[in-house]
Specification:
Layout lengths: L3 E7 L4 H11 L1 H5 L4 H21 L11 E7 L9 H11 L12 E8 L4 E8 L1
Parallel strand pairs: 2-3
Antiparallel strand pairs: 1-4, 2-4
Helix pairs in contact: 3-4
Length: about 130
């Protein structure tokens, strides 16, 4: 039996906040030369956001024992490839909680897709 776990990260409620949020964390902000101290703050924010989402939902308390594929579903105004930085910060946040590490031994792939819900859906599936 293949083990799967999912959790949701909710987008900001207001349209103005959503617009600011996607502009702040999309890949283009990083290509524009975002300062390292701001990048560090971004990572801390996403780690807290992700871990808080996991803690609010019924999600396993131990890492998967086999390698996994992580799928992240988005619904915002960004192009799909603009989610790379946010995806990395989400994966980093689940290290030690849902996955042992994010190296090639434990994570065989990360896929990004769109959906129509008002949240980011992260699914971890054993392979």
């Amino acid at each position: 039996m293949t083990m799967t776990e999912s959790f949701r990260i909710y987008y900001p409620k207001s349209k103005a906040e959503q617009k600011r949020w996607t502009k702040e964390y999309g890949m283009n902000a990083y290509y524009a030369g975002k300062h390292w101290s701001k990048r560090k703050q971004d990572a801390e924010y996403w780690h807290l956001l992700t871990r808080s989402a996991i803690n609010r939902q019924e999600v396993r308390k131990t890492p998967f024992e086999k390698p996994v594929v992580i799928t992240i579903l988005w619904n915002d105004r960004l192009d799909i490839d603009n989610h790379a930085v946010m995806g990395k910060m989400i994966v980093d946040a689940i290290k030690g909680r849902l996955i042992n590490d994010d190296n090639r031994q434990w994570v065989k792939g990360v896929c990004h897709f769109f959906h129509t819900e008002d949240y980011i859906l992260v699914t971890i599936k054993e392979v």
